[in-house]
Write a structure and sequence with these properties.
Blueprint: E1 6-9, E2 13-14, E3 20-21, E4 26-32, E5 36-41, E6 46-51, E7 55-58, E8 69-71, E9 78-80, E10 86-89, E11 95-97, H1 102-109, H2 115-122, E12 130-132, E13 139-141, E14 148-152, E15 159-164, H3 165-173, H4 178-188
Antiparallel strand pairs: 1-4, 1-7, 2-3, 4-5, 5-6, 8-9, 10-11, 12-13, 14-15
Length: about 190
């Protein structure tokens, strides 16, 4: 099996009234003829027949934190690495950037609680005391044997309460979307 060849769109391309390939969208070459190339675009999840002048081939092995460009894991565009916020440092103190671009992160992060609401909750943050997560029922010493975090609805900003860090991360991975959680339950069953 041959190695997939990846491309990025060099310009916006209208496919139909409701579907467009956008500049920098990443796709995978499916087949080629002399004039056109069939490309599967991840963001729109469909094949598109393109003129060879509409795209450029690139090496995915030369993208990411150590390179000038990186692919966003949400919009699937090839963007300058500077368009990804710094997240942490790797073992060799090299900066690691978030997997999603700053534009997509804005949509993901949504609405935050008001500073006043957050402050009211922080006054009663469990610390150095027994804590049982209301989701997974994990029992810990808050702030000692487990990190306890304030969870909120990213759509409304409404605070839901204190949960363990693992459950907060899990809720975030499911994008606060009950339908995704139901799919996960169905998958587990």
């Amino acid at each position: 099996m041959s190695t997939p060849r990846f491309i990025f769109a060099k310009k916006d391309i209208r496919i139909s009234d409701s579907v467009s390939v956008e500049k920098s969208d990443v796709g995978i070459i499916k087949s080629e003829s002399e004039e056109n190339t069939l490309v599967f675009f991840i963001r729109i999840w469909q094949n598109v027949d393109l003129n060879k002048n509409d795209f450029e081939i690139f090496d995915t092995q030369k993208t990411g934190d150590g390179f000038p460009q990186k692919i966003c894991n949400i919009c699937h565009k090839l963007l300058n690495t500077t368009e990804f916020a710094r997240n942490q440092n790797a073992i060799n103190n090299r900066p690691v950037r978030r997997p999603s671009c700053q534009e997509c992160r804005k949509r993901l992060e949504g609405t935050n609680p008001t500073p006043k609401e957050k402050l009211n909750w922080l006054k009663n943050k469990p610390q150095n005391e027994p804590f049982e997560c209301p989701i997974c029922a994990k029992r810990t010493i808050a702030g000692v044997t487990s990190k306890v975090v304030l969870d909120h609805d990213h759509r409304s900003g409404k605070i839901r309460g204190w949960v363990c860090d693992s459950c907060n991360t899990g809720i975030g991975r499911f994008k606060d979307d009950i339908e995704l959680v139901k799919r996960a339950i169905k998958f587990l069953e």
